[in-house]
Amino acid sequence: MQATVPCPNCKTAIPVDMMGLSQGTSFECGSCQSVISLAAPNRQASLNAMDALKTLASEMTVKKDADE
Ligand SMILES: [Zn+2]
Fold first, then answer.
1. Fewest C-beta atoms under 10 Å: which of 36, 49, 57, 65?
2. How far away, in angstroms, is 39 Cα from ligand 1 center?
3. How far is the CA of 68 from the centre of ligand 1 (A)?
4. How much distance in Å is there from the Cα of 60 to the middle of ligand 1?
């Protein structure tokens, strides 16, 4: 899952892999070379968020128009 986060130093959008980020992978800002990573409590929060998304995805159904 790709996403971008703003660099805390220069506000440049840094492309990150959400799975990698949640697993503690560090990402380097291409503009100022700052290295960013999530602190452990935030990693757990993002893992929880991804679990919730997976649950939502598994519970989604195709909605058909019943009036036709
Ligand atoms: Zn930066």
1. 65
2. 18
3. 54
4. 38
C-beta of residue 13 within 8 angstroms of C-beta of residue 30:
no
pLDDT tens string 10-37: 999 999 888 888 888 899 999 999 998 8
In DSSP terms, which residues pair with 15 in a beta bridge?
Answer: 4
- Ligand 1 centroid to Cα of residue 1, in Å, is 21
The structure tokens listed for 25 are 């992978």
Distance of CA 30 from the midpoint of ligand 1 (Å):
7
Q: Model's pTM, two decimal places?
A: 0.58
